[in-house]
Design goal:
alpha/beta, Aminopeptidase, eight-stranded mixed sheet, globular, hydrolase, AstE_AspA_cat, metal-binding
């Protein structure tokens, strides 16, 4: 199904007026400062908090958003280091709250064997406006290459480079939602002057492995654990999920570095991107959060094995 977006002219890329119109239509719908930031600061008794940057969006919404990393306490250079990222797409709620729940309930149990680093909410303006893009109509999850344009992504890159550590594993927490078809994919096609063809939204959890450096055994270990929490997405009639061929049950592959995806930011040998489906009639918001936690712990257990 082709969906024509209400901003712009079909076949023509957006200019500044179209981007400004899009931004003028975005509204604050929930609060990073009420929902997320207090949960992060409450972790300071058990973890080290580091503010790695700030997004000054005062001209847009009158706010500055502090960006925090949460680190396990007994950080040691001889232990493997793992990264968990959430909220690269701020509208993907369980990515943010799954990262926080992992910190609240599971992370300390791993800190004797692993250095654990969590960036729970990379795109707080996107969280507040329930948005995939930042205020410049740029997708942070296509901006993790050196020439990426989203400040959300570049601040993460600079922070991680400054740590000067080698990551053994990176799990990036995402969702696929019905609004991908109703809003975000049509908007992207309009912005880029292309034609949108909606894909089938998978009903259930799935993973995106790295086509350039696949680790299928890790993906299977995650799927096996998450299946105990919520259902795994079945392939569509074309044997695909979101237009990509199935590599194994519940897993597709993307070329992550080529696309500038967050999951390419560390060059870790073990990488996975989760995709939870919060709009499923068969899954609750709590199940979505628990599925993210299960994915993270399954990945860490796989690494330790």
């Amino acid at each position: 199904m082709n969906t024509i977006y209400h901003i712009g002219t079909v076949g023509q890329r957006w200019g500044q007026p179209e981007t400004a119109q899009w931004l003028s239509e975005q509204q604050i719908k929930r609060s990073f400062f009420d929902d997320v930031l207090p949960a992060i600061t409450a972790l300071q008794h058990d973890f080290d908090l580091e503010q790695y940057g700030e997004l000054d969006y005062q001209p847009v919404c009158g706010k500055r958003y502090p960006l925090f990393a949460v680190k396990s306490r007994n950080w040691q250079s001889d232990k493997p280091t793992v990264l968990v990222t959430g909220g690269v797409h701020g509208y993907e709620t369980s990515g943010v709250h799954g990262a926080l729940r992992f910190l609240q309930t599971k992370a300390q149990a791993y800190s004797d064997k692993l250095n654990v680093l969590v960036l729970p909410c990379i795109s707080p303006w996107g969280y507040e406006t329930i948005n995939r893009w930042n205020p410049d109509a740029i997708d942070p999850n296509r901006s993790f290459s050196a020439d990426g344009k989203a400040a959300e992504a570049q601040l993460v890159r600079q922070y991680l480079a400054g740590l000067n550590v080698h990551f053994a594993l990176h799990i990036d927490l995402h969702e696929t939602t019905d609004s991908d078809n109703s809003e975000f994919r049509p908007a992207k096609a309009a912005r880029d002057g292309t034609i949108n063809n909606n894909w089938n939204i998978p009903d259930g959890f799935y993973l995106v492995d790295d086509a350039e450096h696949p680790c299928p055994a890790l993906q299977k270990a995650i799927i096996d654990q998450v299946a105990k929490i919520t259902h795994i997405a079945a392939a569509d009639e074309n044997g695909q999920l979101i237009g990509e061929n199935i590599e194994q049950f519940g897993v597709i592959n993307y070329a992550k570095a080529s696309l500038g995806l967050c999951a390419s930011v560390t060059e870790a040998p073990l990488v996975s991107t989760t995709e939870v489906y919060p709009d499923s009639p068969s899954a609750t918001p709590e199940q979505c959060i628990l599925a993210q936690v299960a994915a993270v712990t399954a990945a860490l257990d796989y690494l330790l094995r």
